[in-house]
From TrEMBL:
Residues 550-865 form the Peptidase M1 alanyl aminopeptidase C-terminal domain. Its EC number is 3.4.11.2. Belongs to the peptidase M1 family. Residues 221-432 form the Peptidase M1 membrane alanine aminopeptidase domain. InterPro entries: Aminopeptidase_N-like_N (IPR045357), Aminopeptidase_N-like_N_sf (IPR042097), PepN_Ig-like_sf (IPR038438), Peptidase_M1 (IPR001930), Peptidase_M1_dom (IPR014782), Peptidase_M1_pepN (IPR012779), Peptidase_M1_pepN_C (IPR024601), Peptidase_M1_pepN_C_sf (IPR037144). Keywords: Aminopeptidase, Hydrolase, Metal-binding, Metalloprotease, Protease, Zinc. Residues 42-182 form the Aminopeptidase N-like N-terminal domain. Pfam families: DUF3458, DUF3458_C, Peptidase_M1, Peptidase_M1_N. SUPFAM superfamilies: Leukotriene A4 hydrolase N-terminal domain (SSF63737), Metalloproteases ('zincins'), catalytic domain (SSF55486). It comes from Thalassolituus maritimus. This is Aminopeptidase N.
Amino acid sequence: PKAIQLADYQAPAYEVTDTHLKFELNDGYTQVHSVLTLKQVGDGNELVLNGQDLELLSIRLDGNELTTDDYVLGDETLTLSGLGASHTLEISTQIYPEKNTALEGLYRSGGMYCTQCEAEGFRRITYYPDRPDVMSVFTTEIIADAEQFPVLLSNGNPVSEKTEDGKKHVVWHDPHKKPAYLFALVAGDLQVRDDHFTTCSGREVLLRIFVEPQNVDKTEYALDALKRSMRWDEEVYGREYDLDIFMIVAVDDFNMGAMENKGLNIFNSSCVLANPATATDAAYQRIEAIVAHEYFHNWSGNRVTCRDWFQLSLKEGFTVFRDACFSADMNSSTVKRIEDASMLRTVQFAEDGGPMAHPVQPDSYIEISNFYTVTIYEKGAEIVRMLHKILGAEGFRKGSDLYFERHDGQAVTINDFVQAMEDANGVDLSQFRLWYKQSGTPVVEVLTQYDHAAERLTINLRQSTPDTPGQTNKKPLWIPVQLGFIAHSGEDIEVRPDQPDFWTEESQVLHFREAEQTFSFGGVIEEPVVSLFRDFSAPVRINYQHSQSALRFMLQHDSDGFNRWDAGQQLMLHWIELAEKGRFKLVKEDIAALHSVISDESLDPAMVAYLLALPSEAYIAETRKSYDPVAIHNGREQVLSEVAEALIEDFKACYERLNVPAEYQPAPADMARRSLKNLALSYWARASSDGIEAAKAQFKSADNMTDQMAALRVLVTCADQAEAQEALNAFYEQWKHDSLVVNQWLTVQCGSSRLGSPDHIEKMLEHEAFDWRNPNKVRSVIGAFANQALCHFHSENGRGYRLLADAVIRLNASNPQIASRLLTPLTRWKRLVPSQSHLMKAELQRIMDSGSLSKDVYEVVSKSLV
Ligand code: HT7
Ligand code: ZN
């Protein structure tokens, strides 16, 4: 397969001013009739339409039927040449949604039809210029059996509806120009929950969530989250919703989390449906964030869209930043920051260090679906956050206002976004733009020196970015370093460097812009503890060795919540390293520091839970040049047990204090209480049989999934195997009718470092609850195994790798997107200890040799084998 290059971008010769679509949904096949109004807008008289897996029935140009001599039908294109200034093009195709297991284009999920067109799914529906810079006004007619499919939806506003001869006909019209990737259609026997939102200018918007009938009682939270998002976007960005109706549909078979189709968002049911009995607090928070994310796309993505797919982070990075700020405002902002930064450091840093490393604005790809990555989304969001830090809240808002005003209705580039920020603030962001172009994680080395006599502190910073595939000799970046100095009293000392041009007082940010810079701070009367990169102000690795006592001090006193947490993580990383070498013993100062955290009732309990949680095995691996996953697992387990034993009375007391009867509420304070209570339970149960008994009692009596699942996880981790299995069996009997709960049940065991052995995974693949066609099930079993049960996945004989490779080979044929995403853990072979590394590489090679690979899988495997 051939790589697509950013440098080859050419504007389209024709725009499609209007697109009329007629869908006739029949049992087993669907006919699509399109009428396109074409207008020449660029150089050339050639029109290239994309098409994939289509049966072409007919083409007419300006009313005349064309024959095969009039066009060129390629593998995945249909080209018309010698065209004039304007035309009407009519095309009929036949497609087979029932056979579509890739879940791109139009497909069947259970009893309903739905679409997924981003990035290039529309070309599986009909021949069309399937590129985001072709924006058109869509009218969609849908005809289907009235009894089976009483609900027929598409983008925009409903125009007409009738039933004739047992067939239902509906027409939808979307007045907003949009690219084909934002097109959507849904047909099914669905129930709806309605609500209303009055916009800031007083317009009434009808809000509708469509779900399968058994899920109506799981829709309230998403609707509430939607209303909060709509209000927030008005208040924080001045963005009002622009149609009279906004719809959400839940579907069970979906490759990703959700899709922002104009006026008709389609959600993976796991990312929208919740009630207290079936959804955990984590699921509620995920739903709030994803509902907001998709809604925010209405402006950052739909009204202003991407010129081409190299600009993907234009909409995704900006929208993730927007949804993160929303979640921070709705919940604890510090906890949200810890969660996001921790995920970035674990997953995105690993991507940067692997064979698929790419810049936030890539310059080539083979399959665009492979580029919906943590780099595009999360690192992209970090770049926008740095702009916010550099420009300040007001400057950033001026920039975003200008961006929306300038580009409303257009398909634009990342550069246009940065330009708007520049123009609105009169600042030169040329160097800052490098963040989009350079891949890899920058490393910042820090040296500090204190001169007591001169009352002066100097900070020397050096930056470098390692080579990544296709990129060497990287230039220095503009890195915002948010700083704090902490006195012995635990209070912050006011800081100000002698170089005012490199300092922003409002955000306490030092602007580090050269390969090496030294900053000095005068009037510092005592040697402070330096708190660097507060609020994780830049997505970099920091090389700075705080002493153990400084880390304990920061864990107890840093006024910056993120660095307070990170100090604890650094301490714990050190403990785990010692444990791996057989030299770990928790000293009394460590116990005192942890004790002071757990007994500080003035702290947010959610924060305490994070402060007491050990770094994940995946993050520990990420901090090492080369790693042995089993040694990491054993070292971490030892530290967990020692902490549990040393603080057993604290954990027991904490659990008992927080385990109060209360009606379940998905509200921040309640979630925080549950998170600390369940963390305390997990430690307590590790150290004592009383803790296990408490977990059993909680498992039986819980009236909400957060507590029930937490107790089940504790039993799976700490109870003896028979008791763990008994709890799992009881859980399945209780919940086997609810597929989303069953997925959680699959995850808790397949991701378990106790139960998730290859034997167990093979058993679960045969279980009645498993289904290869459903991505959520595949993720719950194979994804959980390969990403969480690391000591089993990396079993010495390479069986875990073989199991994953077999799954990839199987899914390559049915669902390439899922196959390609699933194979990520196999791409990390170079960083493993040699004994594991060659076993993993051999499995990659086996995939490569397994026959005809999809573009998705081919790209990842071939780049990984280099
Ligand atoms: N913009 C959406 C991306 C998406 C997607 C991409 C490729 C294949 C399937 C997909 N489903 C959704 C999701 C979002 O970022 O909001
Ligand atoms: Zn998005």
